[in-house]
Amino acid sequence: MRILLSRTDRVGDLILSTPAIASIRRSFPGAHVTLAASRYNAVVVDRSPDVDEVVSYPAEVRPEVFGARFGEIDLAIALSPRDVDHRIVAATRAPRRVGYTYASRWVARLGLRSRLTEVVLSEADPACAERDPSRVVAHEVDQVLAVVAAAGAEELCRELVLPVTAEDRAAVAALPPRPIVVQLGRRWTERGSTTASCLALFRELRGLGRPLIATYGEDARELGAEVARTGVADAALGSLDFHVWAAVFERAACVVTIDTGATHVASAVRAPTVVLFEYAWFRLASQEWSPYRVPNAVLRKPPDETDASLRASRAEILAAVAALL
Fold first, then answer.
1. Options 1.20.210.10, 3.40.640.10, 3.40.50.2000, 3.90.180.10; which CATH number does 166-324 get?
2. SS3 for 185-248, per residue?
3. For 301-318, what is each residue's pLDDT tens digit?
């Protein structure tokens, strides 16, 4: 049996799909499982015990052309509700082609009737979630598990899969033990947060008596340099190898981050996590993309950047971290 899975969006999305991928492996142990990923997110599964082959989707190639390359596929599953993954799966012409979309997206639902053989409907629609505060949105892990269950997976796995090796751990062994790790990102400097407030947060976290480590990627290089220059953290580590970055989080007493893939890396290595979500779409994001199966606190950015709002936000973060330590 040949199975194609497709998820070509972000790192965090693919991490949250690893239970579904493991469920396919457990349910079809003799199958050859290929995962279509992006050049960006493929690093999540380059050590996966649950796939036989990872193929990176080149963004410059039409999804239909890419999907048709796979030859005879028995089962194709889009693990994302995105059009590009639907088109890749549809192009395989597998006897069973399964995916999901939002229940309120009527046009997409109609179009998928001709592309897929089975469509799972998700209630995680941003507009509906914000209009109705009582609306319960399933976590992304559970939504994707529902898709593979519809495709025939009977043995479902609910653990995130992100292997960290002894070599990865050795690379961070010189860091202080059990630090508070703050993952920097561009959104620490905009829309309800500022560079000055971020630096102030480090100074206030210092009062908890733990070592402070900052990590950052390309989108926060300037902020990382400012953290290093001001000395508010014991170390500022930029552009780490993906699995070494995960090993830093694994070492943490608590990870503090804005809503990025870092949230899900932390969950995968069982690190208690505080997440600061954007003010807009908070009801949806804080349910669908919350830390998964780890102690956590989910906070909302303030609606403005007044001094009072920023101070109150930092106080919330500080209290949440203290409660998790």
1. 3.40.50.2000
2. CHHHHCCCCCHHHHHHHHHHHHHHCCCEEEEECHHHHHHHHHHHHHCCCCEEEECCCHHHHHHH
3. 999 999 999 999 999 999
